[in-house]
Amino acid sequence: MFALVTRFNADSDPIKVNLAPGTYKDPEGKPWVLPALQKAAEILLDTPTYNHEYLGIQGHLEFLRLAAQLTLGSSVSAVASLQTVGGTGACHIGAVFLKKLYDHTNKPLQVFISDPSWENHHAVFQHVGLQTRTYSMYDTQTKELDFVAMKATISAALEGSVIVLHACAHNPTGCDPSPEQWDELALLFKERELIAFFDSAYQGSIETFLRGDVQLLVAQSFSKNAGMYGERLGALHVPCPTSRAADHVVDILKAITRREISTPPRFAADLMTIVMSNPELFQEWTEDIRTMSNRLSDMRKELVETLRRLGTPGDWTHITKQRGMFSFTGLTAAQTRYLTDRCHIYLPPSGRLSVTGLTRLNMGYVTKSIDFAVR
Ligand code: PMP
Fold first, then answer.
1. Which of these, 7, 135, 145, 262, could form a disulfide with 175 (CB 3.0-4.6 Å)?
2. What is the ipTM of this complex?
3. What is the reported pTM?
4. Which residues line ligand 1 (CB under 6 A)?
5. How far apart are CA 144 and CA 27, in angstroms?
């Protein structure tokens, strides 16, 4: 992905279109600072006591309390939370934590990752010495979630295995289980004593797993939903049976952090604390998220509608059924190569199209080029 971006940047043709970005772009294709976060920054910089002192090892405690409440609700009484370097850092610390626990038991630990998944997942878990495997979840024919296969491969995992789940807006397929299917999965996890590792890069709900008393971890990112990509704000949450257990887990997480980064970055944690603790700003943030989500939905609809009008061969309706920032278009590696090499339209060979790269201005050119590539 980074190589593709380098090629895009080096391309001097003004027609070029980047359909690979992992960061939200506004209707003109520009980065967007969320107004709620902009206001929080103004409040923060106007605060006379504002300073750049280190946070504690665990991070910004009020941020962590509010972040945990946001993702777990208020019914969880004991939770170990740690501020991390983005969602990637949360996945990493979660992986180190699991590795340490299992090294003590001498039991082999297997981590199951969806096929396909965010391209970094296997690397992040393998990097700390864990073994990764895959579970099925995607039907390449229908381009929809293959829930039967998902359940079958997850059921076959050994008891105590860790299953990495995308809390919502699955990257790269855009296919999520329905609420009823999440309920079924929670039952299955409980029955098979599986550990759910929720990668919540886009802030999904994990309520049904909490109600089902499933052992879980949540790697929460504020990159996409608050537009703070480069500020690197995330959190790892581990719900625990008692506050004593939670204190113990926090100690372990702090020991890991101390050795890796000593203390997490401060600025974005200060901003997000202002947003989450101020009802008006919180409301505005919710609306900002809706603005992003609505634009992505509109672009999906327009893409499908324009391809339909052009009579482009194939059924493209899966694009509007999928959710989130990405669409798994079904374009082949050869077709994406044609788009990149001949049309200056950049997207990876998997056919994963970043919907946020589409605008009303480039829609005509992109759809005509897809039409050429497919025929
Ligand atoms: N997990 C998934 C599923 C993602 O899509 C992403 C971002 N593309 C991340 C983790 C990484 O998030 P962050 O940028 O906060 O590290």
1. 145
2. 0.99
3. 0.96
4. 22, 86-88, 118, 166, 171, 199, 201, 221, 223, 234
5. 28
